[in-house]
Each structure stands twice: as structure tokens, then as C-alpha cells.
Amino acid sequence: MALESTLPDTDVPERSELDRILDRRCQTDAQVVEVETAKIKLVIFVVGEALLAFPAQVLVEILPLTTIHFVPGCPPALEGIINVRGDIASVVRLGDLLGMTHAPSARRSAILLGQGTQVRSGLRVDRVVDVLDVAEVSIQAPPESLPEPLRGLATGVFEHQGQVVILLDLDRVFQTLLSDQR
Questions:
Q1: Which domains does the chain show, CATH number per domain?
Q2: Dist CA 25 CA 53 (whole Å)
Q3: Cα–Cα distances in Å, from 72 out to 22, 79, 146?
Q4: Residues 6+ away with beta carbon under 8 Å from 165
């Protein structure tokens, strides 16, 4: 006994307006091409109340705050030296160079070990916030309203979680330190 269809072949329901809209949407989505944008990896940190960043490629590592040994006769911004697995590194209070007040030393304080063109040194920051990839197109020129000496050290600004982050040039920071020593 064979089953026979009771519906005639011509009884195909008409496509609804919703089906046609969904089909168009699928076709449009298929035409969207994702464009790969150039990104830069940045380390975002806090000094005082400011959000700042360095490109990750100029930072050798992020160290927890450790014992910093005072060295007599150093400029005020040079906090002292630390031992990094047998290598001696100077530690600079970044806030002093930028004209900002550091928060009191806390468990979240860190030392960013940076490698510039001519100088390798640690930079004490109040805390590290994030390490992330930022689209280069989202970095804007630093505003003229930035206070000195920050204006001369900034290469750009961008937004992170609704706050403005100032991107710094490590070589300019180290150059400021060297010129303060003279």
C-alpha cells in the first residue's frame, strides 16, 4: 500500500515578505568583507590620575614593585636601582618626569622595564591597567592642551573604556631624563 500525497504539487505556499527581507539580509551579509586594520600592542598604566601607555615593543618586561636601592647624587626623578636577575637597572619615577604626583606605593605598583634607543631603565608606575591591541587608526594626534612636559612626550591619544589614554614615546621620556641630569 503506497502513501499518496493529498496536497497537489501546485500548492506551494507563497513566500512571505519576511522571507524575502531575510533573504536580502543574508545576501547583504555575504557581501560584507572584513578589513584587517593595522594594530599596535600597548601597555596601559596609571600614574597619579592619568591613564598613559607605551608601545609593548619598547618594554622588556613588567616587574612587580621590588626593593629599590637609593643611589646618592642622582637626579630627583631617578629613584634608585634594582636587581633584575643579576642585572642592575635604574628606576625612574615617571610621575616626576611628567610633572605628576605618584599615588603612594601600593601592592599594585609596578616597574616597566623599558629599552629605548640609547637607554634601558625601569619606570615606576602606580599600576598596570591592561595590555591590548589598539587599531592604529584610532590613535589621534595629541591635543595642544596637554600640559608641559607631557605635550613633548606624547605621540598620540586614544580612548579606552570611556577614558582618554595618552600614548608616550619612550625615547623622548629617556631624553628628558638625560637632559635633566645635565
A1: 40-181 (2.40.50.180)
A2: 41
A3: 74, 10, 33
A4: 42, 44, 51, 52, 53, 157, 158, 159
What pTM does this model have? 0.78
First-last CA distance in the chain? 105
User: Helix, strand or coil for residue 60?
Assistant: strand
Q: For residue range 127-138, list pLDDT tens digits in order.
A: 999 999 999 999
Residue 90: band (very low, low, confident or very high) from pLDDT cuts 50, 70, 90: very high
Sheet holding 120-125, edge to edge: 59-64, 110-115, 120-125, 87-93, 78-84
Pick 165 or 12 by higher pLDDT: 165
